[in-house]
Amino acid sequence: MRSAAKFYKQLRRSGPKSLAGVTLSHRRMWELLVESYCRQGSVKQALQVFDDWKAAADAWEAAQQQHLPNLDSLASQELEEGEAQQAQQAQQQAQQQAQQQAQQQAQQAQQEDGAQLAAVDAERQPQPQPPRPMPAAGSSREGPQAAAPAAASAPSADAPAPKEAAARAARAARMVAAAKLAAAHAAAVRMDTTLHCSLL
After folding, report:
1. Other CB atoms closer than 10 Å to residue 53's CB: what's the count?
2. With the CA atoms of 193, 194, 197 and 199 taken in that order, what torsion angle do they form, in degrees rounded to the nearest 10?
3. How many Cα atoms occupy the beta-carbon half-sphere of 63 within 13 Å?
4. Cβ–Cβ < 8 Å for 52, 12
5. Per-residue pLDDT at 151
6. Confidence (pLDDT) at 83
7. Taking a C-beta distance cutoff of 8 angstroms, is the pair 179, 101 a contact?
8. Contacts (Cβ under 8 Å, ≥6 apart) of 138
9. CA distance 62 to 56
10. I want to staple 37 with a disulfide (CB 3.0 to 4.6 A). Which of 45, 51, 115, 180 is the partner?
11. How many other C-beta atoms can be found within 10 angstroms of the C-beta atom of residue 49?
12. In the chain, how many H helices and how many E strands?
C-alpha cells in the first residue's frame, strides 16, 4: 500500500497526462488507493483520488474517441487495394501470355517458311542430265533448229519462282495475323481491367 501511495504522489506531480496514461493499466491500483483511504478514515483524500481517477478516465476516453480509426473505411480501403493489385497482376499475366503466344506463332511461321524456302531451293537446283547421244551426220542440219525449242522450254534462272513468292506472301500474312491477335487480346484485357476498376 505504501508503494501505491508513493506511485499516486508521483502521478500527481507529473500532471493530468500521466494520470490519463495509466488509467487502464493501473486500474486496480486506483481502486486499492481509494479503498485504503476509506479504511483509514481519510474521506477527503479518498475523494481526491477518485476525482483524479475519474478525470483521467474521461480524458483518456475522449482522446481515444478523437483518434479512433474508422475500421469500416480501413477494411474497405484494404479490400479495394487488394482487388486493384489482383487486377493489375491479372493484366500483367494476360499481357505476358499474349506476348508469348505471339512469339510462338512468329517462331512457328518462321520455321514453316524456312521449310518451304528450303523445298523451293531444292527444286530450283539443276538436276544432273543424262549424256545426250551424238547426232548422226545426216541430222547435223537439224541441230540448231532442235536446240532452239529446248532452250525456249528451259526456265530462266532470273525469273522468280512462283512457290518462293507464295511462301513469302504466306509468311507475311501469318506475321500480320499474329500481331493483330496479340493487339486484340491486349486491348480486351485493358478494357476488362478498366471496367473492373470503374465498378469498384
Report:
1. 20
2. -110
3. 11
4. yes
5. 46
6. 77
7. no
8. none
9. 10
10. 45
11. 22
12. 7, 0
Tens-digit pLDDT profile for the chain (200 aa)? 455 566 556 655 655 555 555 555 566 677 777 777 777 877 787 778 777 777 777 777 777 677 555 555 656 666 777 778 888 888 888 888 888 888 888 888 778 877 777 777 777 766 666 666 665 554 444 454 544 444 444 455 454 566 777 777 777 778 887 778 777 777 776 766 665 555 55
Domain ranges of the chain: 2-66, 83-120+161-200
C-alpha cell at 45: 483524500
**DSSP 8-state symbol, 158:** S
Contact 60, 148 (CB under 8 A): no
Could you count the other beta carbons within 10 Å of the beta carbon of residue 182? Answer: 20
d(CA 150, CA 160): 20
Is 96 exposed, middle or buried (CB count within 10 Å of its CB: 0-12, 13-18, 19+)? exposed
